[in-house]
């Protein structure tokens, strides 16, 4: 299949690489040139501009946020000139924008699939992403070979594309809820004389297996938040997405509100560029724990 | 080893049965007679009273709460008359009471180990509990054969017995934090058109494996909270234990406060005897979701 | 002074009427014609359009929200054509927009004063508003006769116009915080057997005099939220203004988050068009109080 | 009337003084002797012990908390020997204890009135307390001359004594809710460039008159929390009273939970002995405001 790929950040680069490796003909575009050069070395073709990418059989995009999607891909003129018949948007964007994007693509006769992913760059490089996909069955069938090259499993979440974004937003909300819960528990433990590392070992060995508790938990126990795998400022962006999506549906989200307040406090204390696990420092500050005993 | 066992509730019964099956000589006592008869059939000996149990080599207790432990086992006269030299208290009690119990036992020359567990009655019956143990190494070594008969793994959490209770209280706090997080996410999903069952499948298949999300999540998705595996009223008891332990250590626990408010609301709506997963109905009520689409 | 007045809602109408009554020559504009007719009867002159109003000595505006101010008054062409040298914006808008408005006016050589008010339409009709004003002293001096006609007191809050909006946003946040506090206390009282009306009488007669507790409190005690003096949906708008302003300054606002969640719940239950005092019904629902005893 | 008075703390001393000044024959008792000497100088008689006080026509008590009331005045033997027929308990205690006290007094044929007060020692000295009274009308009539000597107004809140304590607990909860609201608003203002003192002036001059906002607000604006008029540790005690009373009635109190967390944080930072207004420092710390601009 001739695939156009837009957005070669840490995730997009690894995902496009998987498509090339699977034998697809991939044309890539990125705002900055370095990642393009990297993909070309792997066998991709560079595009002159987005217009060229939009002439591929299928377009896959992995941009940073709503604003980037809106300015680069929801341009009426660009869509009118596009000859592709399927756009698979894998970015983490708001359900509201996904809905609007689907309608706009439909108006121009282009199929639209939302397929945000769960997983970090290493998982993307290994083809081990979990792909949350929504759109018509026919379109999902068409995209299936691409998903198979990039992920370990594809979840089909319904005909309306934005439902995949609802799932992604919910998952990220739960991720940081789990981090906050461990942060509070670790602070309670530490202030009561129990080493947070001991608590973490108990939890991950028993009721809380899986990558979230062990991954974020280790950073919290060590008080080491660099390098950032998931920047705290982006965690705030995602929690705000959850709160906005909930507000649109008239749903109070008290745990989301609590996360937002804690993340704002973290940013006020200079942790915006550190890993989101640094939210744990708010709980420690509230309890006036100054020296760390791990 | 000659083991005395006090407290044959759903958990204690299964644990005492494991000790009998492992070849220990077990003398049992319980407030009501039925579970005693059951254990006797399996090969245990019935005790005339607690005094008799306290003459075993090692005493294991699994009582319901602080009040039961206090009235039955922290009696100065009973402890003075006891000839046992080790009491292994496996109940979920407050760290504050555990600390007092350890001091009182010490005064009477009796070793004290705290060893609360993670796991449900089925896990206890299969010898698959996770045991959170704290006390001196010598005492933990002595109790090790018993732990091996009852659990799949024993975590040693330090010399001070109450640290095991801190771990247990923290774990239960995190358990209900996870339930609340999924409850809010499921409500956000449902109100946005995504089936909570689809969200749960994504989560348990990707970032949140393990028994908590799948077990409680299934109940929430189905809106079925009976039979209760962990009663909501007991969840409130445990969250209050966490809040009290935190307050003793001057630690604010905002997520614990949020859980307490939600659990109180659940009880006001008549859910105290249903499973703790019913806390999810508060989020649905707040969003005015009346008919369930699972 | 020749005054142009834009925005004749319930508040604007009463304020413009005060200016006419004080002997100023007032030219008025409003999107719908009825309030214009009413003011003309009182002695104002109708304007053909906003452009005409912007040729007055001083322009006073009292529009509904950020969007209205942005579309009607921050138009570059309109400002370029304006001959007025002072715009007094009395609407409740975001500090961020006020800052931008001040800069834009400055660019076109027009003075800008922010002067939102505290008080309801009755207070406006009686000239009893509290006016929160900010801008350069010279401009505030120029506007003083207008303020004197409309208010009982003018607070000068600094040279930067947006500071007046910060004060207004903070005041409205505190207003609904007080309402929520009484709502919770009244629920606690009612569920404990004390009539909320008795509690209100104690509070307003002792530590909480003033219009907020007695006004909102009476509605809550009676469970009567119509007619709406301050619509609940607008209360949510204002709380969101406070949260956004706080987020811009990296300030967590936990009470603001709590209010937002409660207001969203109220809207989910159909109370958006009732008075903001209806937020109290969330506390009653949480406690499962169904029949009212006042 | 022959009045016995128990408990001569800052409040009790002033209140007993008012009774002496009004011409009543007052017998006083206090744990420490100095305040007794002071009252004797004013014309009171010292009692040998509590038993003697309990032989007065009417006994008024003003003790520190539940524990003091329980140990000194709910002793079965003391009540059996008492010849008084009315006990007016003016302390801030839990409604649950008040209920139990009323029953116990009834069993011994002694009337019981709950009459906690709103007001500080200066108000007590001037006879300007607000008295929240509950009990049978006949008993309230008997106590009326005493209330008239001590307060500016007596509110009658029903036949069941504990209702007065519900009112008092609710009032103190609202008091600290107002303090927290201003603390957050002042932080929002300060971080946005508006002097908290300016915000306070606006609020107290317009929608929030009365002693709470001006009194606590001034301390917050100045960042001066000593001397303490109402110690922060006692504020936590009172908020816990509200939370416990609410829990007994199955009422979630989210604002109460928020206050509890903030007060615990304050205590963790060493502010327990400063005035409760110091809760405001938590909001400032969360926003990382270090230098004060008032």
TrEMBL record, chains A, B, C, D:
Top-level taxonomic group: Bacteria
Matches recorded under SUPFAM superfamilies: 6-phosphogluconate dehydrogenase C-terminal domain-like, NAD(P)-binding Rossmann-fold domains
Coiled-coil intervals, chain numbering: none
Residues of the 3-hydroxyisobutyrate dehydrogenase-like NAD-binding domain: 165-281
Segments forming domain 6-phosphogluconate dehydrogenase NADP-binding: 3-155
Tagged with keyword Oxidoreductase: yes
InterPro entries from the UniProt entry: 3-OH-isobutyrate_DH-rel_CS, 6-PGluconate_DH-like_C_sf, 6PGD_dom2, 6PGDH_NADP-bd, HIBADH-like_NADP-bd, HIBADH-related, HIBADH-related_NP60_sf, NAD(P)-bd_dom_sf
GO-annotated biological processes: organic acid catabolic process
GO molecular function, one term: NAD binding
Catalytic site: 168
A Pfam family annotated for this UniProt entry: NAD_binding_11
The keyword Oxidoreductase is assigned to this record: yes
Protein name per the record: NAD(P)-dependent oxidoreductase
Keywords from the UniProt entry: NAD, Oxidoreductase
Entry's family note: Belongs to the HIBADH-related family.
